[in-house]
Amino acid sequence: MRIMIVDDEREIREFLAAMSGWREIGCEVAWTAANGEEALGLLLQGELPDVIITDIRMPVMDGITFAERVRQRYPDMPIIFLTAYHEFDYARQAVKLGVSDFLTKPFLPEELTRTVATLRVHEPLLAGWREHDRFFELLASEKHSSAYKQEWLQAQGLRDGSFILLYAELDAPRAVEGEHFPFAAAHVRGQLEAAAGRSGLQGRTASAASGIYLFVPLREGAAAAEREQLMTFAKEIAGEGRFSFSFARELSLSVGISQSFSSFCQLPEALKQVKRCMEYRMLLGKNSVVAYDALESFLSEKEKETDASLSLIADALRQADPEPIRSLLKDSYRSMLSVGASKKEMQHYAIGVIEKAETALADFGIRPSHGISVDIREKLIHAVLLTDIMKELEKQLLAYQELMRQEIQESPLQVIANVRKLIREQFAEDLTLQSVAQKLNVNYSYLSRLIKKETGTNFTDMLWDYRIEAAKNKLLREDMRSYEVAYAVGFKDTAHFSFMFKKKVGLSPSAYRAQVRGGNGAGEL
Q1: Among 16, 237, 332, 525, whose Cα sits 20 to 30 Å from the Cα of 109?
Q2: Helices then strands (H, E): number in the chain?
Q3: Number of other CB atoms surrounding residue 329 within 10 Å
Q4: Which of 113, 124, 123 shows the shortest CA–CA distance to 29?
């Protein structure tokens, strides 16, 4: 099998082309291109690849446009998309184009070669899948009228009737940082289709951004039994450890099931229902089965109770203890579980908490960087489970609390207290205003002005005052000569020490010792 790789980053193209795994599955990379336009030019030269692997985001001509052009000229050409997990819109377009498979980034080299090998295994199914994709694309469209859809069904020799839609979705692309969970659509689709067949379910499948749809027509008079059969099947494939996809490790799936519909033309509504099921899935955790019938009756009784908790955020941030924040989030978590809030409602609440926290920070003149502010919102929006939202929320609130604590601690009086503490602990060392400012992570000029404003003196005088006080103690408590005391308290010049001591105390060091001890003040230095 000969492969074409299309990617705008030269390093990635060269890396993918040079992977040793290609030889192991009987493949070779015969063409590479930097964008769709260049790749089209190579295709028009004559010999065609057996499969095309292309990135989506590229300059000049992106992967979507490239795939559209390829489909026009070579309708049966297998295409694999490389896509970021969050590029759902692109992935949906890929499905409409009949792309054979798409792999989510980041992925390991062996995952790409495994995807190509899987594509070869499922190649006999591709023609049938393309027919299924056309079925979904037309009936799922809200642009076409029911009459148009009915005519299309008749033209295809298909009889309209009742159906149920099942949607199996990956719980997460990556469980933790560093773990790779590729979504190889063809492989998952083939496995799901085979499992449905073994369970006696016949239907059409279609790939989505992170899962597979299974459209199951219902026989007249057998709808209840087939629905029960579908529920059993859903529990089997969602049951942890029961449904392996033959990757490096098992994938975690959750399943949403629509209500029964009387006409194929109602597919758009069924799609909305399974999407709603997936939003509620975040409350239940991984490996969940959510039926819309049960969901609808439960959600009709829900109530939102979030305003009170939002008002407590600012108070919790101002406390040094992280426990009030954790307690508040635990209460909110229980409340959302009890009322069955939707995914959008939960995300709205979480972003509201962040906004409230940032308002509290602004009261202290603290404004998180734009990058931090955007990053937490993206994490909350892309979170799959409620537990993921709460973890990200707690992490960010504790970080904001630390910013608040530092701001309160670094108020002018606290800064002066920190300066005094440094002098007290390190007066015998070579302390300068610059070194102290660096240690306290404050601006040198600001610190100089602040010391003058708050103490009426400058840093050098503060340091000398402390050194002289320390020298007085040593002169009285320790049997040291005056020059030894000078060096012990940080003076490098004994003459300077004697000058500063007499200036501050009114006596020379020896005279001070003699006077306090009752001596005559002789023996100066």
Answers
A1: 237
A2: 24, 10
A3: 21
A4: 113
With H, G, I as helix, E, B as strand and everything else as coil, classify residue 96. helix
Pairing status of strand 204-207 against strand 211-217: antiparallel
Burial of 165 (0-12, 13-18, 19+ CB in 10 A): buried
**DSSP at 214:** E
User: Do the Cβ atoms of 218 and 260 come closer than 8 Å?
Assistant: yes
Residue with tokens 């003076």: 491
Task: Give CA–CA dist 343/383, Å, rounded.
Answer: 9
Look up the CATH number of domain 412-517.
Answer: 1.10.10.60
Q: What is the Cα–Cα distance from 451 to 449, expressed in whole angstroms?
A: 6
Where residue 409 falls among pLDDT bands split at 50, 70, 90?
Answer: low
Identical fold for domains 157-301 and 412-517, yes or no, is no
For 464-485, letters b (16+ CB in 10 Å) and e give: bebbbebbbebbeeeeeebeeb
For residue 85, is pLDDT > 50?
no
Q: How many CB atoms lie within 10 A of CB 107?
A: 18
**CB burial class (10 A; 0-12, 13-18, 19+) of residue 183?**
buried
Alpha carbons 142 and 137: distance in angstroms, whole number: 10
Q: Which residues of 29-40 are buried (b: 16+ CB within 10 A; e: fewer)?
A: bebbbbbbbbbb
- Condensed to tens digits (0 to 9), the pLDDT of residues 308-365 reads 555 577 778 877 788 888 888 888 777 777 666 677 777 777 887 888 888 777 766 6
The domain locations on the chain are 157-301, 307-409, 412-517
Dihedral pair phi/psi, residue 99, rounded to 5°: -60, 135
Fold of 157-301: Alpha-Beta Plaits (3.30.70)
Instruction: Please tell me which residue, 448 or 109, carries the higher pLDDT value.
Output: 448
